[in-house]
Design brief:
Two copies of one chain form a homodimer. Chain A is 48% helix and 12% strand. With 319 residues, chain A is an alpha/beta fold. Chain A has two domains: 178 residues, 3-Layer(aba) Sandwich (Rossmann fold), CATH 3.40.50.720; 94 residues, no CATH class. Chain A has an eight-stranded mixed sheet with strand order 3-2-1-4-5-6-7-8. In chain A, helix 2 links the parallel strand 2 and strand 3. The radius of gyration of chain A is 22 Å and the shape is globular.
Chain lengths: 319, 319
């Protein structure tokens, strides 16, 4: 609730029992919260419990927070009793605008206006979702990646009527809860991570559609090539390291002309002086000005661990 | 050499002393080969030795092959003596077509026609590279990812004059050498992995150019979101798992409409019945028909290890 510190939150309600809603429930339990799941249909409980107990194996392996227990979980199909003690609400119902709008219209009246309601939507704007909500000022988008109990990203943004205070409170809450919240600059379709992912996905679909590569070749190309790097660094830092001592600036000067080549179906932007500067400055700031040796060491250490992990997995497979 | 088994290769020449050529030299040394590097300029030796000894730290950590030693390394700036004992040649000179054509013209006369010459080019076709080579039938593209001593992918394809035998011999050689060769269907600009990577990269540049995200936000979005998954599975298998019991088919039916949304600047192909079938069949084949439980377990086990790795890295950082 907005009148309490994010650190003092104990009761969370997760609305929705699918892979995202259930994944959130498991995650919050692992952090020591009391969690109530709202089920649209009581019959969903079996699948939800299976999902949570499966997630629990991974969460125990990573390490539970003090007080974390599956005993702190309850569920109900009664919306008003599900939110009774809620100090924070994570909504993850299906991605159908009308369903979301109906729910937020109900929640807008039912839930104390000091309780932040965060939506896991992967592409809709809160302006649209809360269009019929009487108390939209405490609603935010908080989009996780699947599975939400293993990937830390939470992309955040408010709707037109969301207060800055509510958005900041929610960001602080996710930090306390061990997540990596990212507050976006604007409401853009697909947010940030999904846009990047969707670009790869569409290129992959084009390649299959044009018989340039098989499904298996596409996946092998990613997993054995750039994939392991992306677990450790984003595309900008990777090129910043790839540029050696010269960093991103060298990389853009060297490979800039490749932007004119048909190396993807996505047409590139003009590499203006401003864009070049934004990329170079952004990389230097992001890496605290660390030099090539430090960055490439960070990359190599991580890649060695991933290589060892894969060696182990393939040995286990052969057994 | 084409008249010997790939298993019996002992002597390799690496042409080029940059991050790719040097990375290959380090990798081959770690696999127990005798390696000679050709340096365009003798002064490059310091930088090359630094690169190799730095790579060696990672390679030792992963595990050297029997007989592997830095003592098996030599270098020279004399092209003909560099290739004297070569049973296989890995070329990694700068990506300038004229330079490559000049080199292949020389190598075409100098090198025994039974020795396969593989180019690390990241986008040029062997048809172009070997245009002035007298013996192009044993030349192939073999494109690694940086750093080549840690990432297993080698994208392969011959030029118009390359024999199927030479391409297959080289593929077998890379398998013996512990790499993951991927023979492409066609000579396409950017090959497979770089096309996919370039799509992400261009979308990222557009987002910065349009002030939709900062450099740091883009990298955080990847590293904390889809990135760790890409270390373990390609984009197709990820959606195949994401679709739950219904797999890729469910995913396409559910999220297919998102292809019409402006979730990236890359326009999507039409999701025809043929494309849907190719994606679904491809996923089922690639995963040997494994069910959702098995696939999601594989994903979770890997993500737990990556999460632990990152936890460890961030603890070390704070020290």
């Amino acid at each position: 609730m907005l009148d309490q510190k994010p650190e003092s939150v104990k009761y969370i309600t997760c609305i929705g029992a699918g892979p995202i809603g259930g994944g959130w429930a498991a995650y919050y339990l692992s952090r020591g919260y009391q969690v109530t799941s709202y089920l649209h249909d009581p019959s969903e409980i079996d699948q939800l419990e299976k999902l949570i107990s499966n997630a629990w194996i991974s969460l125990e392996e990573i390490g539970l927070e003090p007080g974390a227990s599956l005993d702190n979980f309850s569920s109900t199909s009664d919306l008003s009793s599900s939110i009774e003690r809620a100090e924070f609400i994570q909504e993850s119902i299906p991605e159908v605008l009308e369903l979301k709008q109906n729910l937020y219209s109900e929640l807008g009246d039912l839930v104390d206006p000091l309780v932040v309601i965060a939506s896991s939507t992967s592409g809709m704007s809160m302006t649209d979702i809360s269009a019929r909500c009487a108390t939209p000022e405490r609603t935010v988008v908080a989009h996780p990646f699947n599975p939400p109990y293993l990937l830390p990203l939470v992309e955040m943004i408010g709707g037109e009527q969301t207060t800055a205070q509510a958005l900041e409170w929610a960001r602080q809450f996710y930090l306390v809860a061990g997540k990596s919240p990212l507050v976006m600059k604007k409401e853009i379709p697909g947010f940030i991570a999904t846009r990047l992912q969707e670009a790869i996905w569409r290129e992959a679909l084009h390649m299959v559609a044009n018989d340039e590569a098989t499904v298996e070749q596409i996946d092998q190309a990613v997993v054995n090539g750039p994939g392991p790097r992306w677990a450790l660094m984003g595309p900008c830092e990777i090129f910043h390291v790839g540029g050696g001592e010269g960093g991103m600036g060298y990389c853009l000067d060297q490979f800039g002309p490749a932007l004119k080549l048909p190396w993807t179906r996505l047409v590139a932007p003009e590499l203006t002086a401003e864009l070049r500067e934004a990329m170079v400055d952004g990389c230097v700031e992001m890496t605290d000005g660390k030099d090539f040796t430090a960055l490439s060491q960070k990359m190599n250490t991580g890649l060695v661990e991933i290589a060892k992990l894969k060696k182990q997995q393939s040995t286990e497979k052969k057994k």
